[in-house]
Design goal:
- The chain is of the alpha/beta class.
- 34% of the residues lie in helices and 21% in strands.
- The chain has 17 helices and 26 strands.
- A seven-stranded antiparallel sheet has the order 4-5-6-7-11-12-13, with helices on one face. The chain has a five-stranded parallel sheet with strand order 18-17-19-20-21, with helices on both faces.
- Helix 3 crosses helix 4 and helix 8 packs parallel to helix 12.
- It is globular and about 75 Å long.
- It binds 6-O-phosphono-alpha-D-glucopyranose.
- 6-O-phosphono-alpha-D-glucopyranose binds next to helix 8.
Amino acid sequence: MEYRGYDSAGIAVERDRDLTVRKSAVRVGELRALTEGLEGAVVGIAHTRWATHGAATEANAHPHVDESGRIAVVHNGILENAEHLRAQLVEQGVVLASETDSEVLAHLIAAEVRQGRRLEDAVRESLRGVEGTYGIVVLDAQRPDELVAARNGSPIVLGLGEGEMFIASDVSALVLHTRQVVYLEDGEVATVRAGDYHTSTVDSRRTDRAPTTVDQSATDFELGGFSDYMDKEIQEQPEAVGRALLGRLDARLGTARLDGLGLDPRELRGIRRVKILGCGSAYYAGQLGAAMIEELARVPADAEPAAEFRYRNPVVDPDCLYIAVSQSGETFDTLATVEELRRKGARVAGAVNVVGSAIARECGSGVFLHAGPEISVASTKAFTNMTVSFAMLGLLLGRVRDLSATQGKRIVEGLQALPDRIAEVVEQRAAIAAVADRFADAEHMFYIGRVRGWPVAREGAQKLKEISYIHAEAYQASELKHGPLALIDPSMPSVVVVPDDELIGKNLSTIEQIKARGGPVIVVTNADLPCDLADAVIRVPRVEPELDPILLTIPMQLFAYHLARKLGRDIDKPRNLAKSVTVE
Ligand code: G6P
């Protein structure tokens, strides 16, 4: 699971009824070198860790092992009563080897095994005393013919091979070996042997999980000729958008078909509000989407970070369509928000990329993004497909209300043209790279946008922060003079988003205000503005005004990408970040 972002890694294998454990606080590459000589082993567990409890050290890396060196555990998630459990173990005389919450599992399970319990029962028994989230896999060196996995809040998927079995936290790790998979549900335990598997609940009821076939192949996850995944995924966007639109546009009626929502025209008309919930870039995509929905359908719409929403005890509106947006479909905060909304009887749809993921299953209805696997931590093609899906939703909601057939057809045509227009922006990569190079020594940058340009600016700043580590701050153009203008000087470049709309005059005066204070300006626009307007002008084609923000985001990706490259950053795996944040 290297691609998800991690800070240490480890592996444990069984040989001659004994565990051999190797760990690295650097990269999986280093771990590979440390595993020389372990090739003969037939069962093992490995893990890439993203530190939550305890620093990124070798001791804190998983697998964790009990004192006798018999039980090894890997764990995703967070144990909330870890402090209490650690204290109990210390009282019993156990010497803890790490600062992690996860280690307690190895000791608890080992204690149950010592009392003669089967591994599966030992795991079950131990999990009863544990609060929090987990996706775990357990190996007992004395019983190397089986592995036990359990899930609560962190994904676990079994891969069924012929005479061999796999367990992972993401199907992308499995497709090289098998496309037959079984997704565990929360509260389920699985015992896996080379030739078979069975599942049951934590409280011992048998469950029956039929395998599903993953419709992705190993090549979808490979780099091909690209130097990194972010570059590949940026370039895949025309195709990815084409897939999102496929079969969903009705040119004759000037509308969209989103059958996965499961809503008939009457129900669509009954929606009085749309609220989009997500985290990180998914939240910004939601913000961009909400603006399009409001504009196209004249239905009040907004977006909010999922965790903020759930912790402020929101008033749940029965006439609101809530949408959980997530690339991975596993983001803990978004999933927990869906659960809370469903508990309150709200109508929640998903806008999710990974089919079979927890959020997709919990929502039960929604729009799949069809972006294909996204490996780079910084989201690009999934972000774009989120916005395209929201544009289709806006169109659909608009067409059951006051958006005329003619206007609807104009939007359909705009959407159909998007893949080609995106390709034209991607083709400008060399010119955008040249602009990025000129600003690579900046320590801070502003991203400025107004109305349609505002979510674009926010996502632009997010991209730059994530992969270049340059401090970037997004502001509404109108807010600039109410504070941030104090920071403008020749060392503070501003990226200003200027859509070709009725607010262009206002945006041009914002640019003048920045220039008057000596601030360098990079303009990203689809208007015919003169090249000498600013220090750099990046031009993209026009689509339709309502859809322009989608296209204006693409140069933001390329700008951040080339800047990060110039600075020699680890683009696909930025420090401290993870692709899929399955912890709170
Ligand atoms: C992490 C990633 C972000 C991503 C966010 C939401 O924080 O680093 O790039 O936008 O998760 O992920 P999701 O899978 O829910 O879209």
